[in-house]
Amino acid sequence: MGEFKLTAYCPCAKCCGKWANGITATGTTATEGRTIAVDPRVIPYGSSVTIYFADGTSHTYTAEDCGGAIKENRIDVFFDDHETARAFGVQSAMVYVEATA
Length: 101
What we know:
The chain has helices spanning 13-16, 82-88, and strands at 2-9, 35-37, 48-52, 58-65, 74-78, 91-99. By secondary structure, it is mainly β.
């Protein structure tokens, strides 16, 4: 898929506004280490997505959510708490779609 801008979010009202219930756009419960928010026109819901981080590590997530600011080559990575999401900051990473649903 190429290079994407990564941000992070958690289930709090600051991150999710009125949708602060932990339920994703696809009806699953958002889970740290699994859930990412994507633009479903770019990455279909249910896709298995591997993110290759700048530090040389990688992790595979599932595209389960979307957000108002998540457009085109941008992904929001879900974390359980606000402090961890803030510490993640803004990053760039290479993204590969392993499989689509």
